[in-house]
Design goal:
It is a single chain. The chain is of the alpha+beta class. The protein has 6 helices and 12 strands.
Length: 308
Amino acid sequence: MKIRQILNFLTLSTGAVAVTLTSLWIGKQAYYWLPPQAAAESHLIDDLFSFLVTLGALIFLGVTATLLYSIAFHRAKSTDFGDGPHIEGNVTLEVVWTAIPVMLVLWIAGYSYQVYEQMGIQGPSHHVHLHNPMKMETAYAVADADPEVPVGEDVEHIDVLAKQWAWVFHYPESNVTSTELHLPQGSRVRLNLHSEDVLHGFYVPAFRLKQDIIPGNDLDFEFTPIRPGAYDLTDSQYSGTYFATMRAKVIVESPTKYQQWLSKAASQTPSPAPNQAASEYALKIENGIDSGWKTVEPAAPPLVNFPG
């Protein structure tokens, strides 16, 4: 009997270690399922996602391993057709399987709220010109994400206008307007988000940043881009018929190239930017196409120094 108990204990211990290590490995793989971390705050979201994947894998593998263990070591003999033992309940077991999920939910909620606070994302209950309350933490995240990227004290201010259906970016210090968002690598950026008409959503998957833009409220939104490259900005909120055309490129480049781009854009005369929503609407009117539903006429293409 003792040998059997020892074997059961070794089996359970080995299985628990295997399940734990496998879950941790799966959680690490979750980082490769996401776009590259292009902003200093990205690792906060990725760490949370990895934690949730690890926890989910641990629960799934733990339940599966328990079932396999029960089938392998505690199944009835082929000649046993009797009823199992009459068990009316186990208070200890019921308390355990109630307390553990409650603790896990509270853990996840606390961790998620902590990440939300560190990201400094403003919600609809906030008022005009609220600033990131966790500036020190997110600035520290730059060095944590890439030690070679300098963290500047200056903040680059950019005005972001969202309207049906276009993104317009204004750089007040250079008086440059563009439909393509250019950002300096390693520098703190503060976007002043404004909606001209309806609810829009500023969402850059590579930055792990999503902020609703509420009509009548200007929101200051801060982050630090750290990875050079071209990324996609999309409207995360349904803003009408042509909302799928409301996309823009986000270019993260070195501070030197960024200043060169600003100088080049400032020297160009403002001209109407290409706008897919306006083009599709004009084509619809020209050809007399009746889609069967009412739609808002897109705003005129914005006048910008750099159309992208």
